[in-house]
Specification:
Blueprint lengths: L2 E5 L1 E2 L2 E2 L1 H17 L3 E6 L4 H4 L9 E5 L9 H15 L3 E5 L2 H14 L2 E6 L4 E3 L2 E8 L4 E7 L4 E5 L14 E4 L30 E5 L10 H10 L2 E4 L1 H5 L20 E5 L5 H7 L4 E6 L12 E4 L2 H17 L1
Parallel strand pairs: 1-4, 1-6, 4-5, 5-12, 6-11, 7-11, 13-14, 13-15, 15-16, 16-17
Antiparallel strand pairs: 2-3, 8-9, 9-10
Helix pairs in contact: 3-4, 5-8
Length: 324
């Protein structure tokens, strides 16, 4: 009765979240004295699959069918459910990523399982029951959820569980699931990436800015700071509404919810809708010339001053530190 973990890939390469969920599943497996089986769907080379073993997967099941080359919610949920039944898995773990948020509830319904999405800590067990802390109300609150169902689906927030090495000798098997034609009524033929920048939901560091930058002509210093930190860039809603930055960079309750290890908010006052989307960041740094800005109340570190003066100095200091 292994724990099944579904791992996502991008063009045959695993995302960081894949190693996070395998590590998360491994920690549960050690608690439950069982093992971890990882399920990969798509064209992924065995060399890449073997990387999962370094984080605790002792068995890797791969599904490599042309009709499942691209993510299709209904079909993927059916395949994961079939793999769970074959492995007799009662706990299924996946990432609470963009695709995972749609996949987890459909999978839970298909398996008649209890669902904890947005999990941010390892669960505790009491007999057959499982209790886990999760985010709630668009990250404005936390909830402790108890799953009493026999089967359990846990969707883990990105960056909430660090990958932990736990070497296993992997066994790789191929699964050829019977995909129902009705699950393929929407087929993604191709995906073309618009940018090679760091994915915002996956980023460990996010440099975000607001109207305190005074105009799009000053954004180069945000890009430069992000580059030296290896960070993704983001912005507040007023900035994207004004057309200074694309809506794909808008974070907050009405935009993308992020939970990086470090979130740097520059020239953002901290409206409640914005805070709701970033509050699960592990460390928050705020730069704002208004000492009464609401963002300072939730910040771990704060700098009061003009962003146009502070950001270039901060970038230069980081560059000098990295050069030594």
């Amino acid at each position: 009765m292994a724990i099944l973990v579904y791992v996502e890939n991008i063009e045959g390469k695993f995302k960081k979240s894949a190693f996070e969920v395998v590590s998360y599943a491994k920690a549960i497996a050690q608690e439950q004295s069982t093992s971890v089986t990882a399920l990969s769907i798509g064209n992924v080379a065995d060399e890449e699959l073997n990387k999962l073993a370094a984080f605790g997967a002792s068995k890797i099941v791969k599904v490599d069918q042309e009709q499942l080359k691209q993510f299709i919610n209904k079909a993927y949920a059916a395949v994961i459910a079939e793999a769970a039944s074959k492995e007799q898995a009662h706990i299924i773990v996946l990432s609470n990523s963009f695709s995972g948020k749609g996949l987890a509830p459909r999978l839970a319904a298909k398996l008649e399982a209890g669902l904890a999405d947005g999990a941010m800590e390892l669960p505790t067990f009491s007999g057959n029951d499982l209790q886990v802390k999760k985010t709630a109300f668009s990250n404005k609150a936390f909830a402790t959820e108890v799953i009493t169902a026999d089967k359990k689906v846990i969707a883990v927030n990105p960056n909430s569980h660090e990958p932990v090495r736990s070497e296993e000798t992997p066994v790789i098997e191929t699964l050829s699931p019977s995909v129902d034609a009705g699950d393929l009524n929407l087929v993604v033929k191709d995906i073309v990436r618009a940018t090679d920048k760091i994915s915002l939901p996956e980023a460990e560091i996010v440099v975000s800015a607001g109207r305190g930058m005074k105009g799009p002509e000053n954004w180069a210093m945000i890009e430069e700071l992000a580059e030296v930190l290896g960070a993704a860039t983001a912005c507040s809603k007023p900035v994207s509404d004004a057309g200074w930055r694309p809506h794909s960079e808008h974070v907050g309750q009405t935009g993308i919810v992020v939970s990086p290890n470090l979130y740097i908010a520059i020239g953002i006052s901290g409206a409640i809708q914005h805070l709701a989307g970033v509050s699960s960041s592990k460390t928050i740094v705020v730069i704002n010339k208004d000492p009464e800005a609401p963002f300072f109340k939730v910040a771990d570190y704060g700098i009061v001053g003009d962003a146009l003066e502070i950001v270039p100095k901060l970038t230069a200091a980081i560059q000098a530190h990295k050069a030594n």
